[in-house]
Amino acid sequence: MAPVLGYWSLRGLAQHIRYVLHYTGTEYEEKQYNAGPGPEYSKQEWLDDRDSLGLEFPNLPYYIDGDLKITESTAILRHLARKHGLYGSTEEDRIRVDVACGITHDVTFRFIRLCYDDKFEKLKDAYIADISGPVGKLAKLVADNRTYVLGDKISLADFLLFETIERFVAFMPTCLASFEHLSAFQARIADLPAIKTYRSSPEFQKIRTRFTGRSAKWGAGEY
């Protein structure tokens, strides 16, 4: 039986996991849950399933592969990375991957917090004015002519970084103008055969604009 990835019908915390699954050629099924429309944004679809899955800590996303049941997006991503050789080959590699993931998570968290803020319209201009700060941090991860975060070796950090760049470009299309190497990195990941095929699929196109949940002030996308 194929593994099952469960998450909302959006990109959010699961998109980098989807990229890893497609890059590694893992056949899997996806259980997507839909939040209801506002103002309630009902989570009933997920709540109806939550307690019947045998998850120790029920949450989304989840990954079920036979008797293996994992929640928390970072735990799922790192499990897949270890399984498929996407966590580097040395302790130095693994440290760099962990640092890169930490930096990317920090940048993403601050941006997502803005997206859900009731004062988004008032705060966004100041964020845009300083966007070179967070984007510059991301750019350092692939500086010095690095093809990937680990140089010439692809890792889980690259897919996490790629999805974060995608969010920023959707938010402000010109944000990479001063970071040509980061723009080249984005294009490089998008052009990986398995990723390119997935991103052209109806499966991806359905959620392409849905970076955040439906209650967000930016990034909820089209339904």
Structure commentary:
The protein is an alpha+beta fold and 223 residues long. It has two domains: 4-84 and 197-207, Glutaredoxin (3-Layer(aba) Sandwich), CATH 3.40.30; 91-192, Glutathione S-transferase Yfyf (Class Pi), Chain A, domain 2 (Up-down Bundle), CATH 1.20.1050.10. Helix content is 50%, strand content 8%. It is built from ten helices and four strands; from the N terminus they run βαβαββαααααααα. It has helices spanning 15-23, 44-50, 73-83, 91-116, 120-129, 132-140, 156-171, 180-190, 193-199, 202-207, and strands at residues 4-8, 29-33, 62-65, 68-71. Strands 2-1-3-4 form a four-stranded mixed sheet, with helices on one face. The longest helix is centred in the middle third of the chain and has 26 residues, at 91-116. The chain is globular and about 50 Å long. 33% of the residues are buried. Belongs to the GST superfamily. Mu family. This is glutathione transferase. InterPro entries: Glutathione-S-Trfase_C-like, Glutathione-S-Trfase_C_sf, Glutathione_S-Trfase, Glutathione_S-Trfase_N, GST_C, GST_mu, GST_superfamily, Thioredoxin-like_sf.
